[in-house]
């Protein structure tokens, strides 16, 4: 959570699980792509949108865990958008959003 004026992190210390709410990263990449689709502004995409999309794709690539026994990738220890569910493996929203963000980057 950031101050809307300064961008400085002001996450309350008591906000349990907030550092696992990584689904927001995918939302940001998807929003960059949707802005490009709505505006058609290739210059903006190249200069501003793409670096964000690429960085978030790199984050997801570093965050997944390969499960050799089941031949699949997993995203562990996340907080669902429904914050009552904390530290869950393979949250469906998080996995779907991460997949979409990665597909946008490719």
TrEMBL record:
The record's section on PANTHER family has: GLYCOSYL HYDROLASE-RELATED, PROTEIN-GLUCOSYLGALACTOSYLHYDROXYLYSINE GLUCOSIDASE
Residue stretches spanning the membrane: none
Q: Superkingdom of this entry's organism?
A: Bacteria
Record organism: uncultured Streptomyces sp
* GO BP: carbohydrate metabolic process
GO MF terms here are: hydrolase activity, hydrolyzing O-glycosyl compounds
Q: Name the chain's protein.
A: Glyco_hydro_65m
Name all Glycoside hydrolase family 65 central catalytic domain ranges: 19-105
Xref: Gene3D superfamilies: 1.50.10.10
């Amino acid at each position: 959570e950031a101050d809307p004026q300064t961008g400085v992190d002001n996450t309350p210390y008591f906000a349990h699980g907030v550092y696992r709410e990584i689904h927001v990263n995918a939302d940001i990449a998807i929003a960059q792509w949707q802005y490009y689709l709505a505006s058609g502004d290739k210059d903006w995409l190249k200069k501003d949108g793409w670096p964000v999309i690429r960085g978030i794709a790199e984050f997801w690539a570093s965050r997944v865990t390969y499960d050799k026994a089941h031949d699949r990738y997993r995203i562990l220890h996340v907080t669902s958008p429904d914050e009552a569910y904390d530290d869950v493996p393979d949250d469906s929203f998080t996995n779907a959003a991460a997949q979409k963000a990665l597909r946008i980057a490719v």
